[in-house]
Write a structure and sequence with these properties.
It is built from ten helices and seven strands. It has one domain: Rossmann fold. Strand 1 (2-7), helix 1 (12-26) and strand 2 form a beta-alpha-beta unit. The two termini are 21 Å apart. The chain is α/β, with parallel strands linked by helices and 240 residues long.
């Protein structure tokens, strides 16, 4: 049996469940992180929004961003004891419509109608790689990041049991999203070891290009992870 963490981007699994992921691996479980939206765009052109984000990250091209973020992700996965798998769907900041127009100029928006088939495409790609006894973890979509919502929809099209986790750091900004998104679900809380919490923070810091966009500071990140574990008395999961 494998525990498959379905991660929208190259950091989401480590951010949202790194401590328990580490503890699972230490217990001898096979743990894998499958990142969905980490493909390289076919064009070198960038929207103004993507250019702005690249400037924040200190990068010049999408190819450089994907390459360097995959390196960061492998470093984080090594800290947590997980294997990695990368799919080639594009991050929302790189997606275009058939006419070549950029689709997204912000990330906290609903998926556009002309991407209605994207969850199905993702689900088919994931399904082809799954084994019957795999256990799947995906994010709830707290914060309404368009890619997180899209990947959750894709995971639900698999028609398999899912373990849902809160989206970190977006949970800290929009905690009011949690109850509506988990209405009718069952919650289970798993204990996270001290080593797991320590490795969770260390893995997040491995995403050097992203840390300043996600948290005010490394110190603030450590405090928020501690706050999250304290609030839930461990690592919370939700199931339908």
């Amino acid at each position: 049996m494998r525990w498959i963490y379905i991660s929208p981007h190259l950091d989401d699994a480590a951010l949202s469940a790194g401590g328990w992921l580490y503890d699972q691996a230490q217990a001898g479980n096979k743990v894998e992180i499958w990142t969905i939206m980490c493909g390289v765009p076919p064009t070198k052109d960038l929207s103004m929004f993507a250019q702005y984000l690249h400037y924040q990250w200190g990068k010049t091209s999408a190819r450089e961003v994907v390459r360097d973020r995959r390196v960061e992700d492998k470093n984080a996965a090594a800290i947590l004891g997980a294997k990695t798998r990368y799919l080639d769907f594009l991050d929302c900041i790189y997606r275009q419509d058939k006419a070549g127009d950029w689709l997204y100029f912000e990330i906290f928006v609903d998926p556009l109608p002309n991407e209605s088939d994207l969850p199905n495409q993702i689900a088919q790609t994931i399904s082809a790689r799954l084994k019957p006894d795999d256990e799947l973890i995906c994010q709830l979509g707290i914060g309404k990041h368009v890619d997180h919502v899209t990947v959750r929809r894709a995971a639900e099209l698999l028609n398999r049991p899912l373990h849902y986790v809160a989206d970190i750091p977006y949970y800290f900004n929009t905690p009011e999203h949690l109850n509506p998104l988990t209405a009718g679900m069952k919650k289970k809380v798993e204990r996270v070891s001290r080593a797991g919490i320590r490795s969770w923070k260390e893995a997040i810091l491995a995403y050097e290009s992203q840390i300043s966009s996600l948290f005010k500071s490394p110190r603030a990140m450590r405090g928020q992870i501690n706050q999250f574990v304290s609030e839930f008395n461990g690592m919370p999961f939700w199931t339908k």
